[in-house]
Automatic annotation (TrEMBL):
It comes from the Eukaryota. GO terms for biological process: mismatch repair. SUPFAM superfamilies: GIY-YIG endonuclease, P-loop containing nucleoside triphosphate hydrolases. It comes from Rhododendron x pulchrum. PANTHER family: MUTL PROTEIN ISOFORM 1. This is DNA mismatch repair protein. Residues 283-447 form the DNA mismatch repair proteins mutS family domain. GO terms for molecular function: ATP binding; mismatched DNA binding.
Length: 617
């Protein structure tokens, strides 16, 4: 038979397939991807000693396939000559060694016939649809498709095929969320690493692969699948590795990458921002390098950039903006040919009218003066102006400084930066000789109205924080029975939970309570022990639902990054999650879902949760 030697220069590996028929060899040539083709001179002479190619001579399959390609002839020992040519082509030193990753062909089925491969579309042929496109999900593209096609064209040994089938069977019965299974070309990564051209994106992909392996290792449902995948992986890559060594190396490498690469937008790496400089300027200057490597490794560079940004802002505000403001004020501040307002002093603006509307008029005047670049000073006791959503670029807030004298605050008549909402009204009245009884009564009235409002606001805020950081409990005993995840269980691992993790547990608890109660009513079950519990499954960021959800009706809750909830129902949970995460800012959204028997019930429970979750806090 024929023998084909495949060399992968980037990985420094080679493999051989021997005992091939001419048809199998042509199939490999048509489905393989290679840059150079070399033919050994033994092809020129068959067993009869003639110069014809192959079994059918000139015009045969192999002759026709090679004739349409660029190739070179090799003589002598095929392996040595081929590796020598590769080193010459890629400028490699003679000392460079290539590793043999050949998988023995013993007990392997024969490769698929060329005609069969063409008829099922495994080899792209005009007018013939691909069987893989029909069998595989539409979102299955790239490396997974190539792997499945290779299994069809070159079936593995029976033991490996049985292992792959067992993996598929186990995966179909999984009930927990599963990794996204990041697919990366190993040859491309190796090349980038060798040339030191791998950027943070490649390192993030590597870490994703490692973390997904570790996720499977730590999950009892997925651990057996991970172990079974070792042999098919060895056959596909030629790399045989001990399972424990794989796990330990993944842990070490993932940790090492995490110590260097910035995986999320960190607070200390945000783009610089100053009110007097367009944000686009800093975006252009800093977005190409910030958020790539952790700041601890580039502290000096970060400090230099921050100092430069602050110096630029200071120069703009002190030197450039005053010039622009004067030019604006002296040209056409009110739309006329020449401005008349250069400097404005307003004391107690809009004090002679209703407080609320006067405050808004004052705010509008400040916005107008700010927009036309007018210089000036505006004083006011209308403290509500500080709560208005004013659009200003150059307005700064100043306050009168005070000092404590004999236990009483007194003004220093000096301006300081900041907002002041205290006018020292009672102290001023006392100093001006207003009777003490009047001042005391005024303080009582103030406390009875305004202090109560402030306390109410504080209580509501405190209650809101309390609601967000405590579990939701049902109102009856039956509800408590299904509250399976208490806070004590959640913190059992001994590490503090993030606000999103706390929210997830609260939502999961509330969903379980509401849905279980409704199902009991619908099925009219009196004995709770006979009724199946609602089992909520969490899908964290960069995870996807298990295959067991395919074709099943489910109700889900999306936990958005802004802590808002979205409730929905679907028969295609994976597709719906993918659609949600494709929207801007939602790529790291997490989900909670549970399966239900039928779309009708799913719609009922969706409506129920939309209405009931707000009542659960």
């Amino acid at each position: 038979g024929y023998c084909i030697i495949s060399v992968l220069e980037t990985m420094k590996t080679y493999s051989t397939d021997d005992g091939l028929t001419e048809e199998a060899l042509v199939t490999k040539l048509r489905t393989g991807s290679y840059h150079h083709l070399f033919l050994h001179t033994s092809l020129r002479h068959n067993s009869s000693g003639t110069c014809r190619w192959g079994e059918f001579g000139e015009g045969g399959l192999l002759w026709g396939e090679c004739r349409a390609r660029h190739y070179e002839w090799l003589d002598g020992n095929p392996m040595n000559e081929l590796l020598s040519k590769i080193k010459e082509l890629y400028g490699l030193e003679n000392e460079v060694t290539f590793r043999n990753i050949t998988v023995t062909s013993e007990n392997r089925p024969r490769p698929i016939h060329l005609g069969t491969a063409t008829q099922i579309g495994a080899i792209p042929t005009e007018g013939i649809p691909s069987l893989l496109k029909v069998l595989l999900p539409p979102n299955c593209t790239g490396l997974p498709v190539l792997y499945i096609r290779d299994l069809l064209l070159n079936p593995p040994a029976y033991a490996i095929a049985s292992t792959i089938q067992e993996v598929c069977r186990l995966m179909g019965n999984v009930r927990c969320s599963i990794p996204e299974f990041t697919c990366v070309s190993s040859a491309k990564l190796v090349k980038l690493l060798e040339l030191r051209e791998a950027n943070h994106i490649e390192f993030c992909k590597i870490k994703s692969v490692l973390d997904e392996i570790l996720q499977m290792y730590k999950n009892p449902e997925l651990l057996e699948i991970l172990k079974l995948l070792m042999d098919p992986t060895w056959v596909a890559t030629g790399l045989k590795i001990d399972f424990d060594k794989l796990v330990s190396e993944c842990e070490w490498t993932s940790t090492r990458i995490g110590e260097i690469i910035s995986l999320d937008v960190e607070i200390d790496q945000q783009i610089s921002s100053y009110p007097n400089i367009p944000s686009e300027f800093f975006e252009d200057m800093e977005s190409s390098w910030k958020g790539r490597v952790k700041r601890i490794h580039l502290e000096e560079a970060f400090e230099e950039v921050e100092k430069a940004a602050a110096a630029l802002s200071l120069a703009v505000s002190q030197d450039f903006l005053p010039i622009i403001s004067r030019i604006k004020a002296s040209t056409a501040p009110l739309g006329g040919p020449k401005g008349e307002i250069l400097y404005v002093l307003v004391d107690e603006i809009c004090r002679g009218t209703e407080t609320a509307k006067g405050t808004c008029i004052a705010g509008s005047i400040v916005e107008t003066l700010d927009a036309i670049g007018c210089l000036g000073i505006v004083s006011t006791h209308l403290h509500g102006i500080f709560d208005l959503p004013l659009t200003t670029n150059h307005t700064v807030y100043k306050a009168m400084a005070t000092e404590n004298v004999d236990g009483l605050p007194k003004p220093t008549w000096k301006l300081i930066d900041g907002i002041c909402k205290e006018s020292l009204a009672f102290e001023t009245a006392q100093r001006e000789g207003i009777p003490e009884t009047i001042i005391q009564r005024a303080e009582e009235l103030y406390s009875s109205v305004y202090t109560k409002d402030m306390l109410s606001e504080r209580s509501e805020a405190k209650l809101e924080r309390f609601t967000l950081n405590t579990n939701v409990n049902g109102s009856n005993e039956s509800s408590h029975r299904f509250h399976g995840n208490s806070k004590s269980e959640f913190y059992a691992e001994g590490k503090s939970a993030t606000p999103m993790e706390i929210l997830q547990k609260e939502v999961e608890s509330a969903v379980t309570i509401v849905v279980q109660k409704k199902l009991i009513e619908l099925y009219n079950k009196k004995n709770l022990s006979e009724f199946p519990e609602v089992k909520c499954v969490a899908i964290a960021a960069r995870e996807q639902p298990p295959p067991s959800t395919i074709g099943s009706s489910s109700v889900y809750v999306m936990l958005r990054p802004d802590r808002k909830l979205y409730v929905g129902e679907t028969d295609d949970l994976e597709g719906r999650i993918r659609a949600h995460r494709s929207k801007k800012g939602m790529d790291n959204a997490s989900f909670i879902y549970f399966l239900v028997p039928g779309k009708s019930l799913a719609c009922q429970l969706e409506t129920l949760l939309v209405n009931q979750l707000p009542n659960q806090g």
